[in-house]
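Appendix B. Chain record.
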Amino acid sequence: MVPQQPFQIGEHVYFATAGAYRAKNVTCPACFGTQKLTLILGDGEHVDFKCDNCEHATMHGRPRGTVVAYGVDSEVNEGDVTGVTLSRFENEKWEVYVGSRIPDRTSISRTREEAEAHRLVLHAVAEKYQKEQEEENYNRGRAKSKRSFSVTYHRNCIAKLEREMQYHRDQLLLAPKKEKP
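Structure tokens predicted for this chain:
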């Protein structure tokens, strides 16, 4: 049995929308916009290297000092119902068109006050999601253990190459010099 149509074409309605998906650039939480991090080695020496948190956030492979964060946005919209059809995906559920939009059917109401109450609920959910996203960005910036390994690895390579260069210099000093005829 088909349920009764919830709204009539031409009826004025209000609906709430919210989302934590609006992208905006914010200062990198790892390097605070300096585009570099400083690793303090056990002997107190400071080693600077490019920030891999804001480097990861760009396609160009170099730090920018910013990362993408997602801002919460919520509002109450209003409009006239332009269409009402049975859902193709859910049996016995109506899709209500307001202009060219199909708002979530639970957020549509006949009064602004009901829509505002629903907006507050949606906004709280979006804020929770945003907090989780910010924490994930911050924790990604805190993962420096691979960098400390990288610094140690490259220092060891340099020391090894310097020893090899010295060895080859010494070999050249021991080699007999040929005189040109």
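Further analysis of this model is presented in Appendix C.
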